[in-house]
Specification:
With about 220 residues, this protein is an alpha/beta fold. It is about 45% helix and about 15% strand. It is built from nine helices and eight strands. The strands form two sheets. The protein has a five-stranded parallel sheet, sandwiched between helices. β2 and β3 form a beta hairpin. The chain is globular and about 50 Å long.
Length: about 220
């Protein structure tokens, strides 16, 4: 009688036993899910931030009966690709990545600007209180990407989206743009090209989100 290993490998000649099939399925499931520590190592984040990303729905995960978190490998890879896409086609180097952050809420603006100073991250972050102000600075300070927190009325958010889309279509090197909004289906309201470099992310903006985002940009820049 062939042994279990032979039964699993030579499926073209023999049918695997029920026990071998169960073992094979368990092995497949094991590779599809990660512990919090494993996900943190893959993303270059702390375990606390990974747990927060799961709680916010940015990563797909759950707790086992024993209280251990299991995180979908697919969602980790998607988040990793999302971070790498934000860096765009910029050549990786030892130069600090440049990120422009626009926050129109005065209180949140001060809170996140102060928090960013405390983090001491190896990244060049500039804060602006309006998209117009940020775009005017592009001639002297071209960022690798721009993050815009949008808490204004929906109509104004649509105008902001369109202004950034128009800017990217005027022959400039396109900016990688992330819009943070609590509005649903905002992109569906816009006429965007198939190669739009604008991404819409569910809000609201927070210090945890910004820290995770900046950490991901740093990790991608060092790959």
């Amino acid at each position: 009688m062939p042994d279990a290993a032979y039964t699993l490998i030579d499926t073209a000649r023999t049918q695997p036993s029920p026990k071998a099939s169960i073992t094979s399925k368990m092995a497949l499931q094991t590779t599809q899910f990660l512990s919090t520590a494993e996900a943190a190592r893959m993303l270059g984040l702390s375990t606390t931030l990974v747990q927060t990303l799961v709680d916010q729905g940015d990563l797909k995960g759950w707790k086992t009966r024993g209280g251990h978190r299991r995180i979908s490998l697919d969602s980790v890879l998607e988040y990793q690709n999302f971070s790498r896409h934000l860096v765009g086609s910029h050549q990786k180097s030892h130069v600090k990545p440049k990120v422009t952050v626009v926050i129109e809420s005065p209180i949140l603006f001060l809170d996140l600007k102060n928090a960013c100073t405390r983090w001491h991250l190896p990244i060049d972050v500039q804060f602006f209180e309006s998209v117009t102000e940020a775009l005017l600075e592009l001639s002297s300070h071209k960022p690798d990407m721009i993050v815009v927190e949008m808490s204004m009325p929906r109509a104004q958010q649509i105008k902001t989206f369109q202004a950034l889309e128009n800017f990217n279509q005027r022959g400039h090197a396109p900016l990688s743009v992330v819009l943070i909004t609590a509005e649903h289906d905002l992109r569906a309201s816009m006429q965007t090209g198939t190669h739009s470099s604008i991404q819409v992310v569910s809000g609201p903006m927070s210090d945890v989100w910004l820290h995770a985002y900046l950490t991901g940009v740093i990790a991608s820049n060092q790959c």
